[in-house]
Amino acid sequence: MSMPSRLPDPYNGNGGANLADILERVLDKGIVIAGDIRINLLDIELLTVKLRLVVVSVDKAKEMGIDWWEDDPALSTRARRDQLTRENAELRARLEALDALEEPR
After folding, report:
1. pLDDT single digits (tens) 1-48
2. What is the pLDDT of residues 42-87, one digit of tens each?
3. What single string gives the DSSP state of each residue in 6-22?
4. In angstroms, rounded to a whole number, what is the distance separating the alpha carbons of residues 27 and 20?
5. Taking Cα atoms as reference points, which of 36, 61, 30 lies closest to residue 51?
6. Which of 60, 75, 70, 67 is nearest to 30 (CA)?
7. DSSP H helices in 1-105
8. pTM of the model
9. Which residues, including other chains, have CB under 8 Å from residue 52's CB and lie 6 or more apart?
10. 91 vs 67, 74, 84, 101, CA distance in Å?
11. What's the first-to-final CA gap in the chain, in angstroms?
12. CA atoms of 61 and 84, how far apart (whole Å)
């Protein structure tokens, strides 16, 4: 005599949904987890922490307008190259200004 499974169809072995399928769905559709933590003492707010977690694929994030990693020099070689180019131009301008101050002497 076999006992019927207590788990819903997507979670039992016969449902066909495996971890790869679930991960593909989450990355395709996206998932947002949001929460706030507030610490108060005698009605005085001491600390507020706002948590926002978005789990999506890169393509889906770009569709949503989220692309902050493209401008972060720690995560993007293009952003690092752009940052170095700006710094180089600023340093050259400062050197030219210093050279211009020394020439009249």
Report:
1. 555 555 555 555 555 568 888 888 888 888 888 899 999 998 888 999
2. 888 899 999 888 888 888 888 888 888 788 878 788 888 888 899 9
3. -S-GGGSTTS---HHHH
4. 10
5. 36
6. 60
7. 19-29, 58-63, 77-102
8. 0.42
9. 32, 33, 34
10. 29, 21, 10, 15
11. 103
12. 27
The one-letter amino acid code at 85 reads T
**Residue 63 phi, psi dihedral angles, 5° rounding:** -60, -35
Rounded-to-integer distance, Cα 66 and Cα 45, Å: 31
Residue reference for tokens 């039992």? 12
Q: Structure tokens of 29?
A: 């559709």
Handedness of CA 61, 53, 69, 76 (dihedral sign): negative
Q: Which two tokens stand for residue 17?
A: 């949904």
Phi, psi for residue 73 in degrees, rounded to 5: -60, -25
Structure tokens at 86: 């700006």
Rounded Cα distance, 104 and 76, in Å: 44
